[in-house]
Predict the structure.
Amino acid sequence: MTLALLIVALVLAPEGPFAQWKTRWSYEGEKGPAHWAELDPDYAACNAGKEQSPIDIGDAKKAALPAIRFEYKSSALKHLINNGYTIRANYPAGNGNFLIVGGKRYELTQFHFHRPSEEYIHGKPYDMVAHLMHGASGGKVAGVAVLLKAGSANATVQRIWEHMPMTEGKEEEITGVEMNPAGLLPRDAAYYMYMGSLTAPPCTEGVTWFVLKTPVDVSSEEIDAFAKLYPHDVRPVQPLNGRIVQESQ
């Protein structure tokens, strides 16, 4: 399988309880991040890769980057899973939710959450982060990181939380729940951009990351509800290895 096809398969793969990972891993202990590459040959990039995510964004370079645009729409929230690592909403191909940047259209494939944020900004994490993953033709993958901070309640997050599976298991189909993923986005679409990887095994590289600069509020109660399931589902920040982080003007 080519790298491009592997990335798309991982991002778009239907989620059973363990469908994405034939070898189990963890965020701590003997199967934690320091040992991911030892668990399975397919996870080699977790140690050997030179463009790994997440990162600590410090000195970003101002650049004339293209505007980023989201064509998201309200639709039924049908596919929600507690996969043992996070709460994740899956979107089928042809769902019509798009990230558009530089003339390239990426379709939304899934979004999920981490607590605290995996991305650091000037040495500090945020309370949580939402990762919205997208795929495009040619095997291109784009991840959008939305930083979440304690503040007012977020109606979109609350709607998801009301239906999130409390135990690990198969994807659950939900009926009668309308949701627009745009409710997870800030109004300001200024962003940082860098080349990185998936932040969980197999840590596949070639992912373009857009980290939105403006955080979005979620309530302390919403953070606590997620923390009861996943108090610390984050990979440590990875070395830049000479990569340049660009910042939109």
Q: What stands out?
A: The chain has five helices and 17 strands. Confidence is low (pLDDT under 50) at residues 1-19. The two ends are 38 Å apart (CA to CA).
